[in-house]
Amino acid sequence: MYKVRFMLLLTMVMLLGVSWAQVPEKPGAQPFKVAFIGDTGYDPHDTPALDSNFEQVLDRVRSEGAHLLAIAGDFSYEEERNVARVYFSNINRILGEHFPVLGADGNHDEWAHYQPFFQARLERMGLKRTLIAGDEYGLRFGGIQWAVLGERGNAAFVRTQFAHADEAWRVCMWHKNMHDMQTGDKEDDMDWATYRACQEAGALIVTGNEHSYARTMTLTDLGNRAAGHGVTGPADRLEVGPGRTFVVVSGLGGKSLRDYECDEHDDDTWWATVYTSNYYLKAGTTVVKRCAEESNDNVEIVQGYTYGALFITFNAGGDSNRAEAYFKTINGETIDTFLIVKSEAFVP
Fold first, then answer.
1. For the chain, which residues make up each domain, given as ranges?
2. Cα(72)–Cα(82) distance, rounded to whole angstroms?
3. Mean pLDDT calculated for residue range 211-215
4. pTM above 0.70, yes or no
5. Looking at the domain that runs over 30-274+306-342, which CATH code has it been given?
6. Is 91 exposed, middle or buried (0-12, 13-18, 19+ CB in 10 A)?
7. 244, 202 Cβ separation under 8 angstroms
């Protein structure tokens, strides 16, 4: 029987004129591309023109072929209830009404205004709107288990979301930072227990709040500054798995652009890439840097510094243990690329 099947397949290959390399292999995990942004702002006029930074970031998300948009808080920076409708109108016009979107509550957001829109989005994603019952929620979508937090840390909630062992990728997303996990002058506005809960689960961590882009190397001891938060491994190959994670600040969604604070972070040893107005560190190599006291306001220090999004393709190439990531600006410049691998499967 097996010989007959083999001969039939061989005959089809010969008749169709295809090579063995073109015969489909067993399908693997489906690649899934997520765009991560934060601190967006919006266009209050909602015209067809891409005349706001946020709209140009959305257009970049569309052109890169993302499957989902994840927004790490601070949406419109306005408090009026109607603003949420206009904000989502911007998204719908550029990405479409059924494009999957997740969002985390930011300190400039009135979550009660935005929650109904995110709940409606869940329904269009084929999920139950009741998954969002407050400003923290968990769900599974795109082969990823998500833990989305509001303005407060909640380590117990994170552990609950990742309590069931499986092979799904894991992502923690929230808005605020600890001081060491951003490159500006933000204070400790989160808590280390929540960061560590994500690390223990092998979940990568994405935040906003600081209006720049920065990512760490692999971290194994979050909260222990004296040990560099357990920094390990190369700058362009990160590992996630039980006890291993990395942290990203993706805050160039459209609101404003900020500096790197040299005097507060020059002793940091855990950054792989930093992209700010006065410092560009790319995968461990300094491209250009000038501290504030050395700066000339009339000189553009980091050429072309502008808004953009982090793109991560999970299950890259059909490999469920591999993800490929890059940050691209609205001008089409790729300023960071790196590989993510699972160091251990999330199974018993």
1. 30-274+306-342
2. 21
3. 98
4. yes
5. 3.60.21.10
6. buried
7. yes
